[in-house]
Amino acid sequence: MMLASQDRRGFLRHTGLFGLAISALTFLPRMAHAAWNKPAFDAKTMADAYKAMGVENPTASADVTLVASDIAENGAVVPVQAISKIPNTTQISFLVEKNPNMLAAAFDIGPDMLADVTTRIKMGQTSNVIALVKADGKYFTAAKEIKVTLGGCGG
Amino acid sequence: MPNPMKIRAASKDGVTEVKVLMNHEMETGFRKDSSGAPIPAWFITDVVAKLNGKEVMQAQWGASVSKNPYLAFKIKGGAAGDKVSVTWTDSKGETRTDEATVS
Amino acid sequence: MKRHHLCIAFAAVISAGAARAETDSSLQSIEQYREALRDGNPAELFEAQGEEIWKTPAGPKNVSLEQCDLGLGAGVVKGAFAQLPRWFKDTDRVQDTESRLLTCKEKLQGVDIKAIIKAPFGSPEKDEMNALVTYISGASKDMPVKVSLAHPKEQAMFNLGRRMFYFEAGPHDFSCATCHGQSGARIRLQELPDLTIGKGAGVAWTSWPAYRVSSGQMWSMQWRLADCFRQQRFPEPNYTSDVTVALSMFMAAMANDAKLDTPGIKR
Questions:
Q1: Which residue in the set A36, A100, A120 is minimally distant from B46, CB to CB?
Q2: pTM (predicted TM-score)
Q3: How many domains does chain C have?
Q4: Is the model more confident about B53 or about C6?
Q5: C-chain residue closest to B26, CA distance
Q6: Model confidence band, residue A33 (pLDDT cutoffs 50, 70, 90)
Q7: Is residue C8 part of a domain?
Q8: What does C13-82 look like in DSSP terms, one character per residue?
Q9: CATH C-level class of B6-30+38-101
Q10: pLDDT at A92
Q11: Under a CB-based contact definition with an 8 Å cutoff, are residues C155 and C219 in contact?
Q12: Which residue ranges of C are tagged as binding site for substrate?
């Protein structure tokens, strides 16, 4: 899918993100900006996505909560919220098992943030949605099936 | 120049909740136009949020974040009058920064 | 097209009996979904655009719309939407928000409004109109609908709207009432508001203009009505023509006293 014809360096040069990353490192030593994880966002299987993200042995945890409605009236906009009660949570990601590319968004949780983020994602069909939490280098998940209904004529 | 964001930030009980709406097409690259030609992917890849100039959150997004994205997150601390800024950068290298005052 | 045939097929099916319990829990879940969308309605982005368009000088005369009279006096935006459509003395016509905006664009800005009327929905011309309507509707949020039928032309417009609502035509003998003339009807999981009673009309009228999450577009009532006509296999009505204003007048007057939740958000 996205930017498939360009390699990462080309993408960076083209967009000027390279320069941004450098200046960020120079002026914001507090939080290093990771380069956009193209292999993870391009991955077409959960295994590939996890591999590209460096995820090993993710375990389901009751301390991770994925808040979403059971049914989404439209797959174009599906509200999702993930909350982690696991100490030292440093990243929260949303993945959709049955999307062409699983990884939707990854949030780095800095020390000044609560591990509680909300966004809206696209879903091509009914699927498990996974909230993936990184804490102390380990990975924890919460999953929920969200049904995507066929649209009617609309409002 | 991209259209502005809408940022709301409210402080309560030592936590500042930030809610952001962004103007963006978030094209997946999977869609076709009316003539059948594929519409190229075009989406926000990076989001950075700051409280009073200090970075508090960064995110990487793919094309499956919804069109006109919504984002909500919570910052420890923060008080009325503080400044929250949000910057996004997209796959074309376009960028937009907006700021709001915490209420 | 296939999808819309389905819509018509489904419109005739009213859920009942065994499927009821499952339907109720599904509707509950859908309500949860809608609630999650309400906080952070992207329509706010269009409101901001509309406000900027309203205040920015434009047209051959290079003036803004800030002196536009939406019924409460030149430049008064707050509360105006709650009382539209209404009769205007200067044009001697009953006008809805969009019709009135065209008058202002023509008179104040010297804009050739024929181009706006002809432009398809989704074009920049119409997008600008939709943003303006979104801004104006937001300035009446939480206010009760207060549409007057005191002027003879207002009453006549209401009567025309009611007649149009029940008017069966097209290859399928469809009318607005086919889908919106009974309570408890649905198309798949979308409840169809019964526009013949105050409650249903209230729910419908107070939620437009609306952000459509399916397309990421802002839809005005004019756009909604044009699409209803298409779904009924009627010819597309002219933008801001009397028949469209009449249907709005019918709905708005039926919705009187309902609280505006504008701009809305829809699937």
A1: A36
A2: 0.86
A3: 1
A4: B53
A5: C216
A6: low
A7: no
A8: ----GGGHHHHHHHHHHHHHHHHHHHTT-THHHHHHHHHHHHHS-BTTTTB-STT-BSSSSBT--TTTGG
A9: mainly beta
A10: 98
A11: no
A12: 224
- The question of whether C7 is a catalytic residue gets the answer no
User: Which tokens in the block code for residue C184?
Assistant: 């408890």
Catalytic one of C8, C11, C37, C228: C228
Tell me: pLDDT of C8 over 60: no
Q: Please enumerate in sequence order all residues whose Cβ is within 8 A of that of C124, keeping only pairs 6 or more positions apart, or say none.
A: none
What is the predicted pLDDT for the residue at A14? Answer: 44
* Residue C51, pLDDT score: 97
Range of the domain at C149: 19-266
Residue A11 pLDDT > 50: no
Kindly state whether A124 is in contact with chain C, defined as any CB-CB distance less than 8 angstroms: no
Closest alpha carbon within chain B to C49: B3
Contact A93, A122 (CB under 8 A): no
Distance from CA of C53 to the nearest CA of A (A): 27
Segment B26-63, tens digit of pLDDT: 999 988 888 999 999 999 999 999 999 999 999 999 99
Q: How far apart are CA C243 and CA C157, in angstroms?
A: 8
What is the set of domains in chain A, with CATH numbers?
1-29+37-42 (no CATH), 44-148 (2.60.40.2470)
Element (H, E) at B51: strand B44-51
Q: What is the mean pLDDT of residues A10-30?
A: 42
Which residues of C participate in the annotated binding site for heme c?
Answer: 68, 104, 176, 179-180, 228
Residue A119 at interface with chain C, using a CB cutoff of 8 Å: no
Mean predicted lDDT score pLDDT of chain C: 91
